[in-house]
Amino acid sequence: MISHIDVSTVLKRSVCDLYSNLVTRPTGAAVRIGIEHHLDEIGDRALAVLDFSHVGLLDFSCADEIVAKLLMQYVSVDNPRREVYFVFYGMNESHMDAIEAVLERHDLALVTQLADGASQLVGMVDGDQRQAWEMIGQLGSAWPSDVADATGMLPECAERTLEKLWRRRLVIRQESGYVPLRRSGSSRVNGGEGTSGNPGVIAS
Question: What pTM, to 2 d.p., does this model score?
Answer without folding.
Answer: 0.85
